[in-house]
Amino acid sequence: MGRQWRCCLFVILFHVLVVSGSVVKHLPGFDGPLPFELETGYVGVGESDDVQLFYYFIKSERNPQDDPLMIWLTGGPACSSICGMLFENGPLAFKGEEYNGSVPTLVKTSFSWTKVASIIYLDSPAGSGYSYARTTRAFESSDTKQMRQIDQFLRKWLTDHLEFVSNPFYVGGDSYSGKVVPGVVQQISRGNGKGITPLINLQGYLLGNPLTDDNFDYNHRIPFAHGMGLISDELYESLQRSCGNDYFNMHPSNAECLNGLRAYDTCVSDIYTEQILLPNCEVDYVMPTRPDGRRELKESRANESSLPPPSCFTYRYFLSAFWANDENVRRALHVKKGIGKWKRCNTVNIPYTYDVASSVPYHLNNSRQGFRSLIYSGDHDLMVPFMATEAWIRDLNFPIVDRWRPWMINDQIAGYTRTYSNKMTFATIKGGGHTADYRPDECGVMFKRWIDGEFL
Length: 456
Known about the structure:
Helix 4 (143-160) packs across helix 5, helix 5 (181-193) packs across helix 12 and helix 8 packs antiparallel against helix 9. 31% of the residues lie in helices and 20% in strands. Strands 1, 2, 3, 4, 7, 8, 10, 11, 13, 14, 15 and 16 form a twelve-stranded mixed sheet that branches. Residues 1-17 and 289-305 have low confidence and may be disordered. The protein has helices spanning 2-18, 82-88, 136-139, 143-160, 181-193, 214-217, 221-227, 233-243, 255-268, 315-324, 327-333, 360-368, 386-395, 440-451; strands spanning 19-24, 38-45, 51-58, 69-73, 92-94, 106-108, 118-122, 132-133, 141-142, 169-174, 202-208, 352-353, 372-378, 400-409, 412-420, 424-429. It is built from 14 helices and 16 strands. The protein folds into two domains: 19-215 and 355-451, Alpha/Beta hydrolase fold, catalytic domain (Rossmann fold, 3-Layer(aba) Sandwich), CATH 3.40.50; 216-315, no CATH class. It is of the alpha/beta class.
């Protein structure tokens, strides 16, 4: 009997070490108690739990017992899930006011996806947000390593939150997570098939402006730029002729194509690529280097004394750094002491291997497994143009069951959509950019309709 008790005690202690969550009722910057239920904590994954992934969990404000449960994975890779929670689809957002040295102000949003779903916002991989690793080796990550660790995180988290095991489960994300989310879905599905417990009630996934395949994503920037009037007819025709519509894999000896691409770069270099209609203000991160060695965004030189004006869309990115690095905020969120400076996107400091060249095979496999999916695109994003997303969806070769049509909000066109026989819905967000925060109200309506199985 004593031996059995000692064994049970070991299991309990091990469990506490692996999953630690705390309720948060107040946050610095927000006036009054939080009008929703928030839990934060760490879950250990990887060898000997050497990777500690930080999460924010917000219960659905409608009916958490029955509403869907979703995990949200911000792109980057290595951008904090605060991007999703406080910019795109969470119940709080930064007030657009000039920074005065105090904790930035948070206000309640009207568009939160947590009105109809419970969401786990996860800092993944280690080194993003408040997540960390205990060893140098554990700090190393990759696309496929993330997939395995996120699956492990979910099963441990659900073991600690058994009341959500039966809820319909979805995986969501945007931008670079387009390389990871479809693989996470496949990883969960295969784990379920092997009987790994707890079984996850996986129903589908959704992605916004997802990086998917370099040959699709980069090659469609040029026709998109032409369609938007950013390059001339003559340059576009020259690029088509000299590069053969394969601009990404341009051969270095092709001088005409190379010169055309330089002319293209000159035309768009001062465009804000995430939403081409907005001013080109400073950003606080650097996109991953492409295989051809070219970076996608200029490295920011901004600091506290050289912030962009508050009118810039990116201003709240800097507010988030002031907020997330405030000691009172960290204490309120129960962040482990000793974690270094929080960065919105820690892209350049994490040893990361980009080992998924294309996530199209994952999409194809997930479609064959019968999972439903929503793929949406802001139609003014030059970084991952909607044309690129349309192209790889067509390449899946599933029949169209609901042809191209506008989708409406209050008798106004909010975008366009079509549905395929593999339960995949593609939707554009009119006037949208690279992430949902450029049109949060429209994205909130879109999400509610789709997650509730309504006609978009």
